[in-house]
Amino acid sequence: MSTPGETGTEAWPLWEVFVRANRGLSHVHVGSLHAPDADMAVRNARDLYTRRNEGVSIWVVPADAVTTSDPDAKGAFFESPAGKNYRHAVYYTKSEGVKHL
Amino acid sequence: MTAPADLTVVENEAAQARFDDLIAQDSRIEPRDWMPDAYRKTLIRQISQHAHSEIIGMQPESNWISRAPSLKRKAILMAKVQDEAGHGLYLYSAAQTLGIGREEMTQQLIEGRARYSSIFNYTTPTWADMGAIGWLVDGAAICNQVPLCRASYGPYGRAMVRICKEESFHQRQGFEILLELMQGTEAQREMAQDAVNRWYWPSLMMFGPPDDESPNSAQSMAWNIKRFSNDDLRQRFVGMLVPQAEVLGVTLPDPNLAWNEAEQRYDMSEIDWHEFHEVLAGRGPANAERLRRRREAHEEGAWVREAAAEYARKQAAKAAAAA
């Protein structure tokens, strides 16, 4: 299955861009861009996605290197957590009123 | 392998039901989701036209970078033109997630097969035009674009959020240019008023044809791409302009513009839709010039794109040999 946006017919490959807004935060996907190589992708990403101090660090990843779950199997693939609400703290109610728990 | 026809029909029905359900919940459609062909086509057309508008929109202003009245104004104008380029790129990326290639979109534009906002086919003869574009054209764009942040197609909405954040600087800097001119000499005030006179009507046309002549609007609204009708947005925009014009001290060039208390809306003169259709059809003051420059920039940049790709290829080959 092809990556969205990657048609394979472009002169320059497509890169996905992730930006860390500040120290202590994870890199978050902000968009994509075309660039001939990784170095230029990082520079283009700086110009395109951080013109107003939006980040302190950038990752670029070739779009065709991204593997994703199959959207058509959405229900089945994420079914396992359903019905397992004992994985959430709110499932345990007997401790209500007890402090620091 | 192809599935039996009847099985495909059943699968599509289930996918259509899932799509309809997401739209009904006002949720978002993401790139890999199944979507009706018409939805995909509508979005590709709308997002690519929007991207082209940003790219062509660099031209009327870049025209003034070298002649802006101060270093500060030059720096501001450069930042703004760079933003327009960025907006075009965000939008091209969003369109690409629907399966159209960047080069295909570029070709459509430079071969004159794609549309872009008719507003950029007007010329910018004076410095006050930079003010009027920021205040009126970017103002109208913001009015149009803020509701698009909630468009049902995820990548489009996300691109619009980023764009809207940046556009507000554009509008304010335009307002400031006009305000400074209006506080200047008589000649400067005349120049500001003249620019407002020329840009007011075209900026109102940016909202598109009246509701009863906008056949695609209903479908776009049903798909949660469009949230308000053309006429509603136009009304909202005029409602914002009136008090701003008072602050500036400029007159909006419509003798019939007046608040209608009974109907809670502004009465205004009929828009010259003939002009709108002429410019849209390619017969505006600068259509040919805009496309010529875009084509030229693309063709003259070809060697740069090729050289960069070749450099990347050689570096990759070198790295592979060394490994």
TrEMBL record, chain A:
<dbReference type="InterPro" id="IPR038693">
    <property type="entry name" value="PaaB_sf"/>
</dbReference>
<dbReference type="Pfam" id="PF06243">
    <property type="entry name" value="PaaB"/>
</dbReference>
<keyword id="KW-0560">Oxidoreductase</keyword>
<protein>
    <submittedName>
        <fullName>1,2-phenylacetyl-CoA epoxidase subunit B</fullName>
        <ecNumber>1.14.13.149</ecNumber>
    </submittedName>
</protein>
<dbReference type="GO" id="GO:0097266">
    <property type="term" value="F:phenylacetyl-CoA 1,2-epoxidase activity"/>
</dbReference>
<dbReference type="InterPro" id="IPR009359">
    <property type="entry name" value="PaaB"/>
</dbReference>
TrEMBL record, chain B:
<dbReference type="GO" id="GO:0097266">
    <property type="term" value="F:phenylacetyl-CoA 1,2-epoxidase activity"/>
</dbReference>
<dbReference type="InterPro" id="IPR012347">
    <property type="entry name" value="Ferritin-like"/>
</dbReference>
<dbReference type="InterPro" id="IPR009078">
    <property type="entry name" value="Ferritin-like_SF"/>
</dbReference>
<dbReference type="Pfam" id="PF05138">
    <property type="entry name" value="PaaA_PaaC"/>
</dbReference>
<dbReference type="InterPro" id="IPR052703">
    <property type="entry name" value="Aromatic_CoA_ox/epox"/>
</dbReference>
<dbReference type="InterPro" id="IPR011881">
    <property type="entry name" value="PaaA"/>
</dbReference>
<keyword id="KW-0560">Oxidoreductase</keyword>
<dbReference type="GO" id="GO:0005829">
    <property type="term" value="C:cytosol"/>
</dbReference>
<protein>
    <submittedName>
        <fullName>1,2-phenylacetyl-CoA epoxidase subunit A</fullName>
        <ecNumber>1.14.13.149</ecNumber>
    </submittedName>
</protein>
<dbReference type="InterPro" id="IPR007814">
    <property type="entry name" value="PaaA_PaaC"/>
</dbReference>
<dbReference type="GO" id="GO:0010124">
    <property type="term" value="P:phenylacetate catabolic process"/>
</dbReference>
